[in-house]
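An instance follows:
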Amino acid sequence: TKASGLYRASFAGNAEPATLVMLDKAFGTPIKARDADVYTFTLSRFEALGNLWASSGAFTDMKKVSDGNPQQAQYNWGRSELIEYVNADGKHLKAILTKPEDFDPSKKYPMLVYIYEQLTNGLHRYVAPAPGGSSINVTRYASNGYIILQPDIVYDLGYPGQSALKCVLPAVQTVLNAGFVDPARVGIQGHSWGGYQIAYMITRTNIFRAV
């Protein structure tokens, strides 16, 4: 699910670690006060900056204590979710699907696919808008009305191009079947290893409008 949280373990005995908290967010490393049962840590999601939080060691009284990016409320941001798809070999895989904050399922959106091995562990990673470098800035595209798809890829040794093809195309088709993406406006982007795989894929498919 890509949820994260905290457990407490004892070095004495053989007791299983006890769950303290588990959330659909990304936890930063907790830091304990020297002389008090108080911890500080960050919590983030794609649409939520990793603000500072504080809690007792029970983690039942967590309170946000900073507001690091209030101007974000003025902008159309986005929401990321985890979707599942089945690749051409019948393997069940996951992908990150990011939609604009003002997403309307009755509309037809352009979609940009970004690939680089397995990306879904970054589901809750907060990305501030910025000009893109070798990889795309997902927030910037979502804010400008794009759907962004980041599918996980699994590889058969010696066949990276075919492996990518067998994962990426079914992931794209899964989203197209949902009906809110314009099939004539699907692009794909990747750098380095991802760029190589795209160079292979575009010799095997015409599904992408731009690469």
